[in-house]
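Predict the structure of TonB dependent receptor.
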Amino acid sequence: MVTRISLGILPASVIERIEIIRGPGSALYGTFAEVAVINIITKTGKGLQGVEISSQGGAVGNNAIFGSRASVGYNDLSRELDISANIAFAYHPISNRIYEDFWGNTIQLGSQNSWRHFQNISGKISYKNFYFGFNRMNQRWISPDDFTTIFPANNQGMIVNKLNHFMEGYQVGNRFKLSDNFYFIPRFEYARGNPVTSKEIPASNLDENYSTICQRFTPEVSLQYAGTKNQLDFGAGFIANTVTSFARNASPAMIVAAGDSTSFVRRDAYYVFGQYIRKFAPFVLSVGGRYENTFWGNAFAPRAALNYVAPNQKFYAKLLYGEAFRVPLIWQVYSAQYFTTNANLTPELSRTFEFEIGYKQKGNFRISTNFFLININTPIVYLGTVDTYVNFGNIRSLGAELNTEYKVEKWGVFGNISYTQPLSEYTTTDFLASDRSHFLALPALKINGGAYLDLPRFTISTYATFIGERYAQTQNFVLNNDENNPFLETEAYPSVLLQNVQIKGKNIFTNNLQIGLQIHNIWNANYVLLQPYYGGHAPFPLQDRQWFLELKYKF
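Done. Here is the predicted structure for TonB dependent receptor.
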């Protein structure tokens, strides 16, 4: 099963593979599919086939990290039955360094003031053409950052700004065969959660979405014709978005108009979509589109792609064009979390052009180059100057990426290079560094690479990311910019290399026991998180060197 619900964070150990769908394929997925669709496929019962238990323990500096996971899977090929389930939890501080805001306040991060606690439970079952899946994620964390300044500590020197966010989703559907080539596919999705800024102990009666619960109901039906050379998908659906929110004193907590508030808001949307695929060797033509009618506006998103595969199956090329739109999240519009609200948000629109050419040989070697142009109009962004979400400006970028991979039976290497630049004459100044040649917080150059060696009793692997020079606001801008003296000022942050190393021992002491050692950021590079807007956030320490041991046993 491939879930299409926004489910938050999944533990990497339960992921089987990740699919990225570009072009018209993402027309089937809806309003959040702007540039591409990322499908995360968790492990199946066939892949697990039994019970798997793992535990991890290690440290970030002198602060402990730990976690555990249990997975179970069952597969009966003759009955077309597959069942799998996972449960996991983890605890770790995000840094061991000192954080300093732009006003000179400092705090020692670590297990007291920067911990994260994560829980996840998921499962899925498929029987013939029926499927059901669920996923629930819960995150608790302590935030030392009170938006711009360090959150004041209590008398014991501890931060009490605790946040608690959860999200859960369910999906059920079936694929009924009407004839040899025709199928009827009904499905239903339900998602429920609270905003990521939900505080466990609010500071005031109207503060930070204290009891806000967001829900989304999505019934959908579609028809599919799957022929030898032609495939046609056509469908329609309905989306009901609801938010229920009360303040601590039980009064309504959502602002719907000047001076008016409510405890319940519902906004509906209707959509239709279609996709046609035609195979005429050596080409494959795909066209698709989606029309959505929402409270915030209507939009049509057409998409098209032309794929070419050479007769020798070695060379291939893709030409993609797509339009998409994204409606605002309902709590972004009506939440009383921010002092001012904007009920006039409209969908943001994007256009994407891509061209990819590649070469592959015998499954061992692959290389491809992709060129892209992305244009986003009236993006929905958070502006710290007005404490709310607004449609603001335009973003246009041009870039290219190179991917390569070589693998044989026991070892392999892979790499990726990407370079992106803003088209400054078409991009709003507030998204750019003061030199107008770089996006705020984002590197123009990024390089990923790795290698692995699979021996009979051990597997050794390494993965590294080079992050090029980045730009962010200066302390001078934060302290001195105002209405009477407006200016934008940024400074460069140096390039950084993050490298991870992993060693796994297989069948240690017994045939089913695996022992592994992982070291993240082995060189302890000084990485910081930069904010992609002009506001009050100082660079936040992140990705410190950490190590942990993992024991995994399979029954």
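The longest strand covers residues 264-280.
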